[in-house]
Every structure is written in C-alpha cells, then in structure tokens.
Specification:
With 695 residues, this protein is an alpha/beta fold. Helices cover 29% and strands 17% of the residues. The longest helix has 19 residues, at 86-104. The relative contact order is 0.16. The structure holds ligand MGD (2 copies) and molybdenum atom.
Length: 695
Amino acid sequence: MEQHYTACPLDCPATCQLSVSLNQDGTIRNISGDRDHPFTNGVICKKVKNYKDVADSPLRLTKPLKRVGAKGSGKDGANQFEEISLSEALDILTSNFQRIIDTHGAEALWILEYAGTMGWVQRRGIRRLCKAFGVSDMTASYCVAMPIAAYLAGVGIGRGIDNLECYDAKQILIWGRNSYVTQLPLLSHFLAARKKNGTKIIVIDVYENQTAKLADEFYCIKPGSDGALALGMMRIILENNWQDDDYLARYTDFDASIIEAVQEYTIEHTAEATGLTQEQILKLTQDYVNEPQTLLDLGFGFTRRRAGAMNMHAVTCLPALTGHWKHKGGGAFWSNAGLYGEQFDDSILRGEDFTNPYTPRSLDQSLMGKILAGDKAALQGGKPVYGLITQSINPLAVGAKTDLAIQGFLREDLFTCVHEQFLTETARYADLVIPATNFLEHDDIYSVGGWRHMHVVKKLREGPKEAIENHELINHLGRSLGSQEPSFHRSAKEQLDLMLKASGKPDFDTLHQQKGYTIPQSFEEGHFLNGFPSKDGLFHFKADWSAQGGEAEDLINYCPSTAKNHADLRTEFPYYLIIPPKEDRLNSTFAVVKTGDGKGQSMPKAYIHPDTLAQKGVTSSSGHIEIFNDQATTIVAFEAMENMNPQTIVIEGIFDKKAFGNHSAPNALVYDDKALPAGGLCVHDIAVDWKLEHI
Ligand SMILES: Nc1nc2c(c(=O)[nH]1)N[C@H]1C(S)=C(S)[C@@H](COP(=O)(O)OP(=O)(O)OC[C@H]3O[C@@H](n4cnc5c(=O)[nH]c(N)nc54)[C@H](O)[C@@H]3O)O[C@H]1N2
Ligand SMILES: Nc1nc2c(c(=O)[nH]1)N[C@H]1C(S)=C(S)[C@@H](COP(=O)(O)OP(=O)(O)OC[C@H]3O[C@@H](n4cnc5c(=O)[nH]c(N)nc54)[C@H](O)[C@@H]3O)O[C@H]1N2
Ligand SMILES: [Mo]
C-alpha cells in the first residue's frame, strides 16, 4: 500500500508529519505519524489517527446550500436550506457582495478566517479581498493576541529554544499548558527525556489536568495568579542574590526599579495571591534557580484572561533574571510563530503586492457579537457590517458571547456566506453555505508552531464535485468583482512558488520532494546569545505595553500588580469558569462527528471541587449543575475533583450546542471585554455562579 507524505492541517503546535494510505476510491485507509520527522517522531494523537471519521464523514457537505424561508425559521431556530449548484452559489455570492459594495462601500463587507486549516495559502488568501477592494480585514486575536503581546514586550519576538533540547534539560517546567491534550508529540519527547535522563517534570496549573497527572510535581494555583507567582519568585531570587548580574547587565534592561517593583511580592503576599504555601513557593524558586538547564514550556492556557499577557511577560522574566537562557536545555518556549515570519515572506499570499492596495480597517474577531450588533467602538466608528464571508472558522461555536453573535447572524439586513466542510453551528445560520475541500484535496504549506519545520504537501485526491478550495473561491470572487490582479488567476501552488522564491527558498516541488524544510537554527540564535530581537537587543523587564496595542495607563510598566481577571471584576459571580481543550476533539473540528449525543460518546462535564459543592450543601460527587452569569446559562453533568483550585470550575472541550439541550453552550458565557493590551478570547476568565439541577 502506497504511503503518501502529508501533514496535519489542524491548529495544534505539533503540526505532525503524516503518512497516509488511501483506498482505491480515495477514502483514507490509514493515518500514522511519520517516523522520518524528528519532531513528529512517529507519534500522533488518537483523534488524528481516526481523522478519517471527519475527513470521510457521511456528514461532509457535498452540495452548496441556499437559505429558504425567513432567517431562523428552521429547526432549533436556525435556517432552512435547499441544495443548489456550485455555479449558482458563486453567482449569489458575487451578486450580494456587489450589491453591498454598490450600496454601502466595500468596508461594509467583512472577512473571517482562523484555525480550521493552518495551511498558509488556503488560510491567508482571503485577505486579498481586503487589499483588492477595501473589504474590512479581520484582526486574528482568539489565542495569539495575549502571548504575542507578552513576547514582543519582553523577548522581542515570538520564538524560543529548540524544544528537542528537552533531552539536554535537567528539569522541565510546564506552565499553563496541557501538553498531553494539546500537543502530545512534544510531551512524548519530554517523557522520553525523563525516561532516558531522569529529567524532572513540573506542572503549574489550576486543576490536575492529564499533563499534571503525569508530572513529578504539580503546583495548583489560583487562576490568573501566575504573574504574582513569577514576581514573588523574582523577589526571593533578588533577596538572596541568586540573579546573574553579568547576564542582566549584558542582555537586559534590568535596573533598580525592578527590585523596587517586586518588593510588594513578599512571600506572604505571594502565598495569599497564588494559594500556594510559602514552603511551596520557596521550593519552586530554589529548584528553578539551582537548575539552569530548566526548560520553561509556556502554554496559551494561562494567557487566556484579561491580564494574561502581563502574566506571561512576568514569567518570561525568570530565565532573564537567572541567566538560564545561556544554557543548553535552558530558557523558554511558547511558540516559534515569529521564526516563520523571519524566514518566509507571506505578503504575496495576502495580496500586499497588489497595485495600490487598500489598507482597510481591521475588525477584531473576538468582538464578533458586538460588531454584528453595530457597536460603534467595535466597528471603529466605521460602517456597520452588511456582508460576511467565513473560511476555516466556526465563530458561533468557538467565539465569545456566542448567543449575541447568533442574533447578529439572524439580522435581516446581513448577508452571510459560510465556506465549510460541514453544516457547523455557524453554517446553520448562514444565507449561503459553500462546501470546502479538505487537507487531502488541496496543496499547501504548514508551519510547525512547536518546532522549526515547514511541511510542503500536495493534494492527494479530488474533493467532492461541488466543493471548492478556499484559494479558488477567493480567486473567483476577486475576478467576478472586477479585480485585474494576476493573483486571482494563479493556482495555490503558483502563489506558494512565488512566495517561496521571494523568501529565497527552493520551489514547491523541490521542497515537497524533500519532505519540507527544516529551518536551521544555531544554539546562539535559539538562546538569543547574540542579543534579543528587540530594537535595542535587550530583554525587557520594563514592558512598553503601549507599543503592543495601547491602554498602557491600565497597566503599571512591568508588573501586573494592578491587573485583575475579568472574573475578579464581577464579584456577584464568585466562581471562575475555565473551558479548555479536550483530548478527543480539536477546537470545534470534531464536534460535528462527536456531538455528545451518540452512544459511547464523550459528553461535556464540569469538574468541581468537593468543598465548592459543600458550600451549596451538595454531598453527591456527580449529577448536573446549572452554571450561569449575566450573559447566559448552561447546564452540564458534574464530577467532583479534589486536586483543583476550589473556586474554579472546568469544562473541557467544545461541543455542539445541542449537547446542552435548551440551554446555551459555555462559550455564550465568555465575555468580550478587552484582554490587555491587544484583545483576545478570554475563555479561561469567566465569572459564574452555579446551582444544583435536578433532572
Ligand atoms: N470553549 C472554548 N472555546 C475556544 C477555545 C477553547 O479552548 N475553549 N479555544 C479558542 C482557540 S485557541 C481557537 S484557535 C479557536 C479555534 O476555532 P476555529 O478557528 O473555529 O477552529 P476549528 O473549530 O478547528 O475549525 C473551524 C472550521 O474550519 C473548517 N475547515 C477546516 N478546514 C477547512 C478548509 O480548508 N476550508 C474551509 N473553508 N473550512 C475548513 C472546519 O470544518 C471547522 O468547522 O477556538 C477558540 N474557542
Ligand atoms: N486536543 C486538543 N488539542 C488542541 C486544541 C484542542 O481543542 N484540542 N486546541 C489547539 C489550540 S487552537 C491551542 S491555542 C492550543 C492551546 O493549548 P494550551 O497551551 O495547552 O492551552 P489550554 O489547553 O487552553 O490551557 C492549558 C492549561 O492552562 C490552564 N490554565 C487556565 N488558566 C490558568 C492560569 O491562570 N494559570 C495557569 N498556570 N494555568 C491556567 C488550564 O487549566 C489548562 O490545563 O491547543 C491546541 N491543541
Ligand atoms: Mo488556538
């Protein structure tokens, strides 16, 4: 059986290199992790091993759908549809977009894209509409806005050490990342390092997640207290003179003002803020200081909150203070997103090379509910949105305030086109649904966020006859709306070839032949030993938040002592709800086949501390609870969990709304208040109350 080289298109930092065999009819026979790839190393997660359940699902959309009847007149208050041909669908799309441009101007159209496919050309090409016509652009903020702000403020770029240095590390500190669930190949390297070298694995989280269960030590802290913990550790380090003065002088902007700033974080105050004991804080600090070869593996998880960027910045100060960056296996890693920006110039994919390109406003995806509701600030004082096209995103399931966003889609004066593989929650509310190809059915390149490799993969089979790839749909729209740009006549592969050439890299076929491109990185570059990639070459303890999107007045310069969680600002809802990823699904991608109502399927479940249950007189360790705040109410089964922060409730995974009966899905409880300094989706910063539900 022929094994084909391809890559996982899903939004996980591992971005595994896959070996796929197909049946004669093109359906998937087998998927495995490619052993040739040093980072994938033959390991893939169970869900992608079974990805054929999604990629070849009978639920796959094969025909375009047009809304019939009034908006919201279908089952469950969504729309009703009839099947139409692809050419009719393309005509409807063009005529509606043209009508809106003629009536309101192109600014009244908006694009939305995100993480359904991480392929560069299929994902980024939609932005050509903004450059060619002035269609409103989208600010991608969901999970990247906070960590990127933190990295730009301190390190100067979003990249870090080579994760495979875990084999040189003596200790790995996994901070706010659930690697077992969210990036299994990396964790399997960590576990192999432990087996081989006795490397110690420490986890800092707010509940005993599956990664914490495998760790040697687990520190369970209060949500949002990571900044306080880091500053408390810094105070102990400075008090004991454990800092690396030479390193600080040569590589950082450290001065006496930092010593002054951390004084507030006495061990008593830090214990109070984090919920840890003083002994724990001291031990963690000593263990960190005594082992320069400590790899800090920083997750998105602890940044998904109002002050998440500041908390992450404070944590990145630790290896700078101790000089751990200098050592093999030492330093920190969150993502290598910035490395690809240095290596590949994607401006051709985005249409930035167009003649007289427009620079339209860019509306924040995390504010979709407000934007569709006509909120002036969210619209940046510009036109309301009258037309929308989405690709590779399911915003009515994954965003904030999803009930409000659904109301937006139901607006009579809004035209929505959803380009999708499935009739998702968002597609169900669209005026027009166009079937999309999947990763086996188009060419693309995929960057490995967790390492330093670009996969370059070719289409392996044809998609459904009436499906169209993202790139070709945008090509069609560009041409039919009258653009003369040659870009709208090029294939995905031609676009990629031009991009690779502009980036000084071999062409698509050559790179495909050699199974992608591993970015060379020296020890010095990975560890910033020639200086940090900031303007002055220094690591910044003193963050200039105003350069990262503003609102500096809300923050003190370099420490988050004034910054609170959104949840702390709503005292009438005293519990913290966090809604992180779950092992058997990836964002909303598997929710279409794992609906939570089938036999043997995983169901949404809330983990809650027995003391919290006791606060409301609940003595059973399972049952159902209603969880609510001022935005929405959801209902889920609960299970008591001892090893978690007592004020916290955890619901893992994104499920179809139907799994919550007549109630809202948990994302409806997510606020769209601004995360500092540059926005983002605060899925782990939700204030709620709860009560027992008798069903
Ligand atoms: N409760 C909760 N909500 C969250 C999060 C959380 O942890 N908890 N995490 C947030 C984060 S970090 C992220 S990144 C977002 C991700 O949310 P999204 O960006 O919406 O990502 P997915 O749900 O993976 O995929 C969206 C859709 O893309 C479609 N798709 C896949 N490939 C293609 C393609 O080639 N073309 C087209 N047209 N469509 C395609 C899939 O069918 C899928 O329905 O969710 C956020 N929402
Ligand atoms: N199986 C699976 N894998 C995924 C995804 C998925 O949906 N399913 N989504 C993918 C995407 S888009 C992304 S962005 C990544 C995200 O992956 P991660 O970086 O792992 O982020 P999360 O899973 O959101 O959160 C990780 C941990 O942070 C913890 N946490 C929450 N608040 C705090 C806090 O204040 N302090 C500390 N210390 N910890 C806290 C949560 O309890 C959770 O255990 O995963 C990717 N991988
Ligand atoms: Mo994400």
